[in-house]
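Worked Example 4.2. Read the sequence first, then its structure tokens.
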Amino acid sequence: MNKTFKISYSLKNTYRVNTILYSLKQIPLIRRILPQELYRDRDLKIFANIVSGILEFIKAFLGKFLYFLLMVTLPLLIYETGEKREIFLHIFILLTLIGAWLNTYIFNPTKDKYYALILLGMDAKEYALVTYSYEMLKILIGYLVFGLIFGLNCGLLVWQCLMLPFAAAGMKLTVVSYALWDYERTKAAVSENQVGAKEWIAIIVLLLAAYGLPFTGVVISETVSVVLLLCGILAGLMSMQKIWRFKEYREVYQQLLTEYMGQVADAKRAVKRQSEKVIQIDNRQGSSRKGFEYLNEIFIRRHQKILWKSSKRIAEICLGVVCVLALGIWFMPEYKEIVNRLVLTNLPSFAFVMYFVNRGTGFTNVLFMNCDHSLLTYSFYKRPECILRLFRIRLWEIMKVNLLPAAVIGAGLALLLYLSGGTAEPVNYLVLIVSMLCISMFFSVHYLTIYYLLQPYNAGTEIKSGTYRIVVTVTYFFCYYLMRLKMSTFAFGLGTVIFCVAYCIIACALVYKLAPKTFRIRA
């Protein structure tokens, strides 16, 4: 057992360490100082192992902390009646029932299980028992620590808090035991990721019962909750025998992992088929354009559906929202002042809205899958002058796609400002429209630039660039930060215009200088 645990943990840790080292290698500034024999460097491996250990600790306990905080404790603040202790136990028990069905671990096919059992041929029963025991141990420790912290804070007695981890583990053991018994009966192993209609209905009912019943004053009484926790513990103890004596773990994993790898391959093929499906063959006469202009025109013609469909749909939704708000102001004039103040002082918040409206990632994904994936194999395609020329052509196309919803949002804000009482400075109407257009242009330039400078896709169209993920994440948090920024409409509008122009100039310079080296298919 100890040997199996060491091998399984070492396998998972090695996979994680190699992922960390690979991610470091993708960061331009760090890549230059890393040694050539990256995976043989002892110091780097020690560093990666430390990071891996930290990630394992975070994975083990952060989720449980957030679960107790966000799912169990914070909802107590919205209930005006009822005892906190009773509602805490009520929510915990019902959510634990959901978690027991959705997260069995044994019936969750993963790559590390595929490597261990299929490629390395490890003993399936030993592997299942050892890794499952490790997961149960993390649950016991995590629930014990945070159950005591949050439970005592909500008025639970110490002995009640001590029951929480064992009841949660017991319910999970019971569900796994039932699933193993069901496999012996049907010879069909069902992945925990395959949640059917009946299961979804049960989950919705339990969620409504967990959070909805306390509003009506109906909760599971403290006595009944304690009895249910005790039943969960006893059921878990009785289920351990079935889990220990089960002999067909190899067959279960063989079925689950074969289906899992097949689903992964099917998903990739489905993405490819979907990308091919949206291509529209244009039988019209040829174009008078030549070179890259002709290439781009053919590409845009064939991808009109995927490029413009979502943009038009978003514009229609935004127009609908504006109409609803306009009608709301018309029929409820008491809200005019609030709307007016929000439009004039909270314009930076709309940068976050534009972040989600922008179609930059979808555009670059289609570019790579249906164009650059093939053309990047030719050297002429990576010459600086060719890259910059095609970059400008594509930038104009992506701007047109993104400007449609941006124009609707900008015009809608100007209309809402007018209907809500207007402004003493008429220039603000123009600023609202121009600032939305500039933010849209920024995102268009931004996503196309990082596509050329970081080109995140490999030959299988999978994102392999850690730096690309970091940049996208930083962009998200920057836009989120702008929501908290209070600035006058004119000042923000002027700032967006200046920033957008400067960013476009810098982006073109960087693409011309660096893209010939960075714009390539990743290994």
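Now turn to a second chain, presented in exactly the same format:
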Amino acid sequence: IIKKFLYSDQEIFLREVVSNAVDATQKLKTYASKGDFTGELGDLSVRVSIDPKAKTLTVSDRGIGMTAEEVDKYINQIAFSSANDFLEKYKDDPNAIIGHFGLGFYSSFMVSTKVEIITKSHNSDSPAVKWSSDGTVEYKMTTADKSDRGTDIIMYIDSEHKEFLEKDRIESILKKHCRFLPVPIVSGKKQEWKDGKYVETEEDNVINNTEPLWKKAPAGLKDEDYTSFYHQLYPMSMDEPMFWIHLNVDYPFNLTGILYFPRVKSNLDLQRNKIQLYSNQVFVTDSVEGIVPEFLTLLHGVIDSPDIPLNV
């Protein structure tokens, strides 16, 4: 049932798995800030990699990881999100996490014949764990050979979804759903044009902007910052917006964002450039009819709110 009906749009699986990896990383930062983790943080990027030969898509993080007990609690007991426990313990911490997804991890089975988790807890005394399942009620749990903390989610992509083994397809999904996540998302290496062809460099290809403009204090921003961000949101738009409003609302719900008042020349402009809706910097939709007041649909920009549930 989960495999067939969990999400209406199958590419959402990557958003969910990457968001979980970002959660794990944000949790580690919170533990460190509270003194509950005293180890070296090091590189906290989330890495997305493809192995065409093995037909696998892997999402790796260096976040808090999991013990065998936590894997049993949070993976085997479906629909029980570890985020609930975390939110209860750190509910007053401003470094909020994205995820209260619950079922998010299981979306990986929509496109996979098998999924493996290899994880090691940030608690250095705990051995690494390997969990694997083919999407049935059966699963295997063993110890694993992993020295570094964090989690690898390895998805064995099925024959019907080969598109998710294509670099360009994966990057387009990441740029759509993850381009403003608060942790660097790395997809392979950057390429440069050399001797008539593209060659790979040593530099990580970071997909996202971890500090989008709407998260910054308006007092420190210039007009050029707002117009530059407008063109980042709408690269096909040639015109500058007339003016904009930087939103920061905390009652009766939390909402941040930037709304632009565009120079509209045709109905096509209205249809093409829509308000983009985010939940904790995760892209949800740009079909905001029925979500925001009708008069706002004439505007462009971004609305971000943790109180908006991700669409399932």
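Notes for the reader: The longest strand covers residues 185-194. The chain has a mean pLDDT of 86.
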